[in-house]
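#lab-general

N.A. 3:47 PM
ok so I finally got the sequence cleaned up, no stray characters, all 82 residues accounted for. can someone with queue access submit it? mine expired

B.Y. 3:52 PM
send it over

N.A. 3:53 PM
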Amino acid sequence: MGQSEVEAVKNSDILIAILPGGKGTHIEIGIAIGNDKSVLLLSENEEVFKVDNAATFYFLENVYRKPLILDKVYSEVLAIKR
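B.Y. 4:20 PM
back already:
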């Protein structure tokens, strides 16, 4: 159980994570980072992106932090260059 989720992340072009997430969210983010995938972190509460509240890997080169605005999600994904 869970292997299909690991394979899905490995086979993705980008991982989109909506924060705060569930139990597996940060695991999936870690799998994506470990497999050199781009990660788009979205949250309605931008406080989670502040240095005092965020995990250090939120600030890696291939990790993008954006406010969750439903009308803009598609354009945010297209803007990420691999």
